[in-house]
Design a protein that fits this description.
single chain; about 210 residues; alpha+beta; five-stranded antiparallel sheet; three-stranded antiparallel sheet; 5 helices; 11 strands
């Protein structure tokens, strides 16, 4: 029975002064946005419309050693992904001069890569629990251990069996740094380039029973 049919039939019954609360109790409460549930040193958990989501954010380690691989991943994304269609936040040089000052506007700042994964490295001589970050087939860094030991241990556990049947893990990577334009003197736009960096986010979705 559709919601409008339900309301129509209920209203007919309510003409005999039956309590209107009965109508409201049978209509699902309208979604009012994410509700914070918990927070740890490495994650934030919210109740959302389609489940409970835990967000784990970190700066991917070792990107200085994988600049060539990151550039190859960017080139592949430019050819195949809509996330790399817009450059410099869609701003013209004139807009950069008028609307910004001494603030770099990156060519692909914050762009999301389309195919990211985490892979365990049990044979890593430095860390048996190392977790490598891949974009497509390109290795671009690791989940950090420094200043993120609890978070890394938690992610490692989720990858090795702690994930429950009603949970799903997703992983995304966004781009930081690279080529940029900047207004330094309100006269002209300068062009520069910095080292590429990457931010990672693990999302664990718990579906409602």
């Amino acid at each position: 029975m559709g919601i409008f049919n339900f309301l129509f039939k209920t209203k007919k019954k309510s003409r005999n002064n039956e309590p209107q609360q009965e109508i409201a109790s049978e209509i699902k409460e309208e979604y009012k946005g994410p509700l914070p549930i918990a927070e740890t040193s490495y994650s934030v958990t919210r109740e959302e419309k389609h489940g409970i989501f835990e967000y784990i954010d970190f700066k991917i380690a070792g990107t200085s050693f994988y600049q060539k691989a990151i550039k190859k991943a960017i080139q592949q994304e430019k050819e195949n992904s809509i996330f790399f269609d817009e450059k410099y936040e869609g701003m013209t040089n004139k807009e950069i001069l008028e609307e910004t000052y001494d603030e770099p506007i990156f060519e692909y700042g914050g762009a999301l890569f389309s195919n990211c994964s985490l892979q365990l490295e049990p044979d890593n001589e430095y860390d048996a629990k190392a977790i490598a970050v891949y974009i497509d087939s390109f290795m671009v860094g690791h989940v950090p251990k420094k200043n993120f030991s609890e978070g890394k241990e938690y992610v490692y556990g989720q990858l090795t069996g702690d994930l429950k049947n009603n949970q799903k893990l997703n992983f995304s990577v966004s781009l930081k740094g690279g080529k940029y334009k900047i207004n330094r003197n309100d006269e002209k736009v300068d062009i520069g380039e910095s080292e590429y960096r990457l931010d990672g986010q693990v999302t664990i979705k718990t579906e409602y029973n």
